[in-house]
Amino acid sequence: MNNFIFHKTDVQDVYVIKPELFGDSRGYFMESYNQRAFNEAGLYYTFVQENQSCSVKGVLRGLHFQLKHPQAKLVRVLYGEVFDVAVDLRHDSETYGKWTGAILSSDNRNQMLIPRGFAHGFYVMSERAVFSYLCDDFYHPEDEGGIIFNDPCLNIKWPQTENIILSEKDRKLPCFNDLGKIF
To answer: Which of 28, 33, 29, 27 has its CA nearest to residue 4?
Structure first.
């Protein structure tokens, strides 16, 4: 039995995934990940690390990737609401340089599956958001790369671009065209 609906996005290999919810007067139960169901959908990942972040409204994290240790990610919001974005950095992809975005929230329970070879980021729309990442490779801080969130070449349609809260590191990220071939 498959308890997930897998929606292809307009960017190759990125999915928005809706888990089935089983609820009653006590609350609810849902599977957030099931390797068999993902494999049956043609999605073969072995996740080795789970990360969690908490951010306040207006925080934008990203756009991040790892160079020599690229990570596939299954991301979801445990509390609150974010606008989540994936940018295709794979030179041989039909959607190279394209982005897709989705609202992920604790209410809609949607998840985004982002394969290796993508930059990832999100913007917090609620007063606070708790974000969870399953990753198929470990975090390597010396291997980080990124793209500035407001790169005009990418033209990402963020819900808001004023009063965004960025880390100092994210404020200094290069533009997409300055990266060269990565993946």
So the answer is: 33
pLDDT per residue rounded down to tens, the chain (183 residues): 689 999 999 999 999 999 999 999 999 999 999 999 999 999 999 999 999 999 999 999 999 999 999 999 999 999 999 999 999 999 999 999 999 999 999 999 999 999 999 999 999 999 999 999 999 999 999 999 999 999 999 999 999 878 899 999 999 999 999 988 888
Sheet with 60-66, strands from edge to edge, namely 99-105, 81-88, 118-124, 60-66, 144-146
Measured CA to CA, the distance from residue 157 to residue 45 in angstroms comes to 29
Alpha helix ranges (H) inside 42-103: none
What does the buried/exposed string (b/e) look like for 70-105 if buried means 16 or more CB atoms within 10 Å of the residue's CB?
Answer: bbbbbbbbeebbbbbbbbbbbeebebeebbbbbebb
Give the catalytic positions in this structure: 64, 133
